[in-house]
């Protein structure tokens, strides 16, 4: 907690990520509204949703149904946007002249890479920090992993990530996580595609080669059958599996003189909770420090555009092939 006055905040979008996955009492908070309400350095002033659920009346802040009314009536420092990607560009453009100190957006910034890059440039020219809610970028656990792999403390032999519900919609989490952990993408090659939820956004399996991981496999599942987002990393000294909706880390270590025949084997060393459920609070910590001039965004508009560019490369190569 800082000594400065609480930052006046609002959430645009009253859906799941904006509000509905939480109640005002939920600890830890999972949504933008819950984070603003519970973080000591913010003051949640309002939620803006054109078609509000009755449950939004339970939140201790004003409820607006029109963005113009929100911006006219409230003097805000920061706004979070949690709306479908098709709606986000026009809202982001409107917020440029609203006197905000920072804006938090959802992924991707826009349906197309060109639109996303244009928004990135507009915010850079306006001098307004534009942060993006990719939760793993704010996780201390993943930051520790990234340091370990990027410095060579531990060498990643291969990694596999399972996902569904569209390469743009959900796969962008996997692509961006790969870049966070292992550096920039050197090669990206599509292998298979399935239109599991969105016909215009198929889930695409791909092979990636990165600076610090020569084999990264992005495996597309069918989200109509079940939801799964899991990461499996095998290194020269162990194994890390993130499972249980991102909330559990299972670890193994290389042990000698074990197995049949005796030799080196990967042996389980247990499991522990991740810090995934704290990600919204970590995001707001970072946004506060960005506004205070003490830090750079951990996930900026430029970061998400670079990940979107990798996705576009995969989609371009897959177009007309691989069942797309």
TrEMBL record:
<dbReference type="InterPro" id="IPR000683">
    <property type="entry name" value="Gfo/Idh/MocA-like_OxRdtase_N"/>
</dbReference>
<feature type="domain" description="Gfo/Idh/MocA-like oxidoreductase N-terminal">
    <location>
        <begin position="9"/>
        <end position="133"/>
    </location>
</feature>
<dbReference type="Pfam" id="PF01408">
    <property type="entry name" value="GFO_IDH_MocA"/>
</dbReference>
<dbReference type="GO" id="GO:0000166">
    <property type="term" value="F:nucleotide binding"/>
</dbReference>
<protein>
    <submittedName>
        <fullName>Gfo/Idh/MocA family oxidoreductase</fullName>
    </submittedName>
</protein>
<dbReference type="InterPro" id="IPR036291">
    <property type="entry name" value="NAD(P)-bd_dom_sf"/>
</dbReference>
<dbReference type="InterPro" id="IPR051450">
    <property type="entry name" value="Gfo/Idh/MocA_Oxidoreductases"/>
</dbReference>
């Amino acid at each position: 907690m800082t000594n400065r006055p609480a930052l006046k905040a609002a959430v645009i979008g009253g859906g799941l990520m904006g509000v509905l996955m939480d109640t005002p009492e939920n600890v830890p908070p999972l949504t933008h509204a819950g984070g603003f309400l519970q973080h000591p350095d913010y003051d949640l002033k309002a939620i803006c949703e054109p078609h509000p659920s009755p449950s939004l009346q339970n939140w201790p802040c004003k409820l607006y149904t029109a963005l113009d009314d929100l911006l006219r009536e409230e003097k805000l420092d920061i706004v979070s946007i949690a709306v479908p990607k098709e709606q986000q560009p026009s809202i982001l453009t409107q917020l440029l002249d609203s006197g905000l100190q920072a804006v938090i957006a959802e992924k991707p910034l826009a349906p197309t890479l060109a639109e996303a890059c244009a928004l990135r440039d507009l915010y850079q020219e306006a001098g307004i920090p534009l942060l993006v809610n990719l939760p793993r970028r704010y996780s201390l656990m993943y930051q520790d992993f990234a340091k370990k792999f990027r410095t060579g403390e531990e060498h990643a032999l291969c990694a596999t990530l399972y996902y569904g519900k569209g390469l743009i919609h959900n796969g962008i989490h996997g692509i961006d996580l790969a870049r966070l952990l292992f550096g920039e993408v050197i090669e990206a090659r599509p292998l298979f595609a399935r239109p599991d939820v969105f016909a215009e956004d198929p889930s695409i399996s791909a092979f990636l080669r990165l600076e610090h991981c020569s084999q990264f496999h992005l495996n597309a599942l069918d989200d109509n059958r079940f939801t799964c987002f899991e990461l499996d990393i095998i290194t020269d000294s162990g194994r890390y599996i993130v499972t249980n909706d991102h909330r559990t880390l299972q670890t193994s270590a290389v042990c000698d003189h074990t197995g049949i025949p005796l030799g080196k084997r990967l042996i389980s060393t247990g499991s522990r909770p991740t810090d995934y459920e704290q990600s919204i609070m970590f995001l707001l910590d970072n946004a506060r420090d960005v506004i205070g001039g003490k830090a750079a965004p951990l996930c900026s508009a430029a970061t998400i555009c670079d990940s979107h560019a990798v996705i576009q490369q995969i989609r371009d190569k897959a177009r007309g092939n691989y069942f797309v």
